[in-house]
Amino acid sequence: MSDSIFTKIIKGEIPCHKVYEDDKTLAFMEINPIQPGHVLVISKKQIHLWNLPDEDYKAVMATVKKVANRINDILKPKRIGLQVVGVHIPDHAHVHVFPFGNMNEYRAVTYQASDKELAKIAKKLRF
User: Fold this and answer.
1) pLDDT at position 121 over 80
2) Residue 100 belongs to a domain with what CATH number?
């Protein structure tokens, strides 16, 4: 299997706006966010979420919780949304974590964020 875009980000071959990293997970700004503050949490293993070993699955979900709490503390949204979609990068576990206020915002169409916008929000959210 060839490296996914996420594996290339983990290896540093593709840049990202990192928010959090540990030995099993990486969290960084989504370049096509649903809402400003949209973060992707990925496993460092290139495998579908439901096929992750339990220890790695728990690590992803622990990071999701940390990131959600950080978004809540810093951006103070009404709600935090989670999505496990796996359509665009189906072979690499990832969870979308983002702030929203109502169902229209939750279901909003993604937009292309500027590098400047991503850097600014990442700086606020970085652990």
Assistant:
1) yes
2) 3.30.428.10
